[in-house]
Amino acid sequence: MRDGNRFRQHLRLPEFDYRASYAYFVTICVRDRLCVFGNVANDQMVLSRRGIVARACWLDIPRHHAHVTLDRFIVMPNHVHGLLLFEGDPPVVATPASPLPSTKLSRATGATSGSLGAVIGSYKSAVTRTINRLRPGAGAKLWQHNYYEHVVRNDFGLDRVREYVQMNPERWARDAENPDGDGTDQLEAFVRSLEARERGDAGVATTGEGKRRA
User: Fold this and answer.
1) pLDDT in tens, the chain (214 residues)
2) Distance (Å, rounded) from C-alpha 176 to C-alpha 23?
3) Cα radius of gyration (the chain)
4) For the domain 6-207, what is the CATH superfamily, name and number?
């Protein structure tokens, strides 16, 4: 059986400022790959009650984090893919941003205020709280501990991620997170190929007017 917790290794570069103005592609998985957010029918995602909560809380992120703008996202049966655009200066500036890292795993706990980890941590908590209000205990131990993130490097990467997110329901039968799928569609493989193409262009997709250089 494929390891549903394979994203648990902590590889984040401590010197990178995860509050900086970049586009972040994140994937947040349900513990043990349980399909609690709904199912895919005719290549369309059909949300369960818990899936509706997950979607509503995602849409609510900018209300709690004014420096974050939502881009393409999808709630799948047991995970959420989304693009978050961080705009302007981070809420607190402690050190200059480091060179752009490769794909990392990040922890939501103990995250710096305004950082990607803080945004994801508050989102996961909001989903859990709301589900528990609707049905006490239904949100307990909902999430896999860590999440997967990739800092988008340029406009090519941004377009590819948007396409990947939009087409996710159509690829569900092959998705590595699908307990009944064939596992041939793997997020890590997509990101590796994306990084290889992104490194051909030093430009980084930012949410400001200019390009930040790696």
Assistant:
1) 344 444 333 345 556 788 889 999 999 999 999 999 999 999 999 999 999 999 999 999 999 999 999 999 999 999 999 999 998 765 554 444 444 443 443 444 457 888 999 999 999 999 999 999 999 998 989 999 889 999 998 999 999 999 999 999 999 999 999 999 999 999 999 998 888 888 775 444 443 333 332 2
2) 24
3) 17
4) Transposase IS200-like (3.30.70.1290)
